[in-house]
Amino acid sequence: MAATTLSETGPAAALHFEIPGCSELLRDNDPTTFWQSDGTQPHSITLQFPQLTEVQTVALYLDYQQDESYTPKDLSIYAGHTTADLQKVLAYETEEPTGWVQLDLTEAHQGPLSLFTLRIMICSNHQFGKDCHVRQVKVFAPHRPLALDQLRYTSLEFKMASQIR
User: Fold this and answer.
1) Tell me: the pLDDT tens digits for 102-139?
2) Which H, E and C letters describe 60-86, residue by residue?
3) Bridge partners, residue 40, by sequence
4) Which of 50, 56, 70, 156 could form an S-S bond across to 133 if both were Cys, CB 3.0 to 4.6 Å?
5) β-strand 133-134 against 57-63: which pairing, if any?
6) What average pLDDT score do residues 42-71 get?
């Protein structure tokens, strides 16, 4: 199933961090920049959407080659309507990742999750590191075809022009 990224096609999410002002580093499409946690583990990234949002996949750009002990190892995803009712929906362990780590939320839940709040918890790092680096975060929704896509052409002339060759 194809997916569209919420950061480009849906409402902008409000991101909350331990260090204010770092949310732009996770959404700047530049894998050379990163958000660095500060404080005790677990570290968290919380996304709050202004409306009920379907989420299919969460993707994190991690780089063990550059970050070593700052690279997240054990991740958990929590979802809910508010920060008070978050439920754990996925636990994932990375193994020296370099590039995009895609966390599919549909496998355990037979479809996308409907939520207002999404929390990414970094429970531990490689080499027992304390703080972590996350270079990018993207959240994907399921692809929904437009109503116009359902129209079927009946004339031969329109059918010939309906596809690019």
Assistant:
1) 999 988 788 899 999 999 999 999 999 999 999 999 99
2) EEEEHHHHHHHCEEEEEEEEECCHHHC
3) none
4) 70
5) unpaired
6) 93
Which pTM value belongs to this model?
0.79
Domain of 123, CATH number, reads 2.60.120.260
Token pair in block for residue 141? 């929704």
Helix (H, G, I), strand (E, B) or coil at 2: coil
Residue with structure tokens 């020296």?
96
- Amino acid at site 106: T
The H or E element that residue 102 is part of is: strand 98-104
Q: DSSP labels for 130-154?
A: SS-EE-EEEEEEE----GGGG----
Strand 136-142 and strand 3-5: the pairing is: antiparallel
Instruction: Give residue 81's domain range.
Output: 3-161
Q: How many domains does the chain have?
A: 1
b/e map 89-102, b = 16+ CB within 10 Å = bbebebeebeeebe
Q: What is the distance, to the nearest Å, from the Cα of residue 88 to the centroid of all Cα atoms in its chain? A: 15
Q: Are 60 and 137 in contact (CB under 8 A)?
A: yes
In the predicted structure, residue 68 carries a pLDDT above the cut 90: yes
